[in-house]
Amino acid sequence: MDHFHYRDGEMFAEDVAIAQIAAEVGTPVYVYSASTFRRHARVFREGLSALPRVHLAYAIKANPNVAVLRVLADEGYGADVVSVGEMRRALAAGMKPQDIVFSGVGKTRAELAAALEAGIGQFNLELEEEGVVLAALAHERGLTAPAVIRVNPDVDAGTHAKISTGRKENKFGVPIDQAPGMFDRLAGLPGLDLRGVACHIGSQLGDLAPLEAAYARIGELVAELRAAGHGISRVDLGGGLGVPYKPGDVMPEPAAYGAMVARVTQGWDVELMFEPGRVIAGNAGVLVTEVVWVKPGVANPYVIVDAAMNDLARPALYDAYHDFVAVRPNGEKMTANIAGPVCETGDTFAMNREIDKVVSGDLAIFRTAGAYGATMASTYNSRPLVPEVLVEGERYAVVADRIAAETILSAERVPDWLQK
Ligand SMILES: *Cc1c(COP(=O)(O)O)cnc(C)c1O
């Protein structure tokens, strides 16, 4: 459920006409619905309401805009961050340090130190050496680092290979059979408070079965660690729930997910941490674009839009599908390819797709662009960095400026020896 809908034949974001935003801010532009973010945050929380102790850490990488983070902080969410840059955003949005989880396979020593000094609530360790270094950094500062070990449960998430993280050959986590030995060696280190384990097996999961299999393995590990005398007070179950991209896609509801978690974690007696990203942000944003040309093609015409792979990378990266609809559809349809202006064949959003008939100058949106959209944007082909707008009810604001190509150019220089 989202708040992008037609009203009298024209696409609105909540109570604001998309065409009005396009006229004022220009295109391409991301438009987010604060009410949709709030709704998803609440539905996800309600899905987990049967569980006794829950901490929600929104995975910032899905959509790190500081206004979006403020909305989610308002909804009682903390954050899962994967860099100090993301940590600074969470803090800037008003999230409390103790509500922040620091994940990531390549946290640098400088990042670990900065996060310790900020007092963040949990470090998710990816390897034993990281635990040793973190303990020493904490100890020399007179601090204790709260930490869990991220394990790799070796399950196939059944999603796209590039967003699958829980198979043993992936770079993430500690092989689950090595976790008990690592726990034994790290648990006694001064400066480290090792509280439990974490897992995250992948993203855009359309099926609960791989998650259930992973969580069952985590349950066995928790029992084994307790039998070895370790106190386990936290288990972090990661994120990964999928969202519908295509009309007709059916994804697990947060309530079904919560029921599965309640069943599998029965009797664990821990605080459960969750790191939802896409399920909160995906359908809360669209990318608004203008049709530049309709270019005749061999089989179908190419609808060339002013948004490109540098603004929305998912189709080029993962062959992802984004629904494309006209802002003012006239009722007619056409079969077309949709592509951006960037000089890459991969800069193609769809091939042979039946879409609303559009002509040069028409506005359209790519739906479900709220997660892994603007955050992956670049300035490839010296295009400006795409701006972002947040709508709530009748109000809207530009929450990230369009960064002009000239501004980016102004950060570059020709060295002395090349000056004429
Ligand atoms: C990306 C990521 C998430 C969020 O994944 P979604 O599929 O967006 O829910 C959660 N935890 C970790 C460690 C991640 O890397």
TrEMBL record:
Which cofactors? pyridoxal 5'-phosphate
Stated EC number for the protein is 4.1.1.20
Give yes or no: UniProt keyword Lyase.
yes
From the Swiss-Prot or TrEMBL record, what is one GO molecular function term?
Answer: pyridoxal phosphate binding
Task: Write out the GO biological process terms.
Answer: lysine biosynthetic process via diaminopimelate
Q: Which InterPro entries does this one have?
A: Ala_racemase/Decarboxylase_C, DAP_deCOOHase_LysA, De-COase2_C, De-COase2_N, De-COase2_pyr-phos_BS, Orn/DAP/Arg_de-COase, PLP-binding_barrel
Entry keyword set: Amino-acid biosynthesis, Decarboxylase, Lyase, Lysine biosynthesis, Pyridoxal phosphate
Catalytic residues, chain numbering: 343 (proton donor)
Note whether Ribosomal protein occurs among the keywords.
Answer: no
> In what pathway does it function?
Amino-acid biosynthesis; L-lysine biosynthesis via DAP pathway; L-lysine from DL-2,6-diaminopimelate: step 1/1
Residue stretches making up the Orn/DAP/Arg decarboxylase 2 C-terminal domain: 30-370
Q: Where are the transmembrane segments?
A: none
Q: Which PROSITE patterns match?
A: ODR_DC_2_1 (PS00878)
Which residues are annotated as modified residue N6-(pyridoxal phosphate)lysine in the UniProt record?
61
Domain Orn/DAP/Arg decarboxylase 2 N-terminal per the UniProt entry, residue ranges: 44-281
Reaction equation(s) it catalyzes: meso-2,6-diaminopimelate + H(+) = L-lysine + CO2
Gene3D superfamilies documented for this protein: Alanine racemase, Lyase, Ornithine Decarboxylase, Chain A, domain 1
Residue positions annotated to bind substrate are 278, 314, 318, 344, 372
What quaternary structure, including any partners, is listed in this protein's UniProt entry? Homodimer.
* Function description: Specifically catalyzes the decarboxylation of meso-diaminopimelate (meso-DAP) to L-lysine.
Q: Which family does it belong to?
A: Belongs to the Orn/Lys/Arg decarboxylase class-II family. LysA subfamily.
Q: What is this protein identified as?
A: Diaminopimelate decarboxylase
Q: Which gene encodes it?
A: lysA
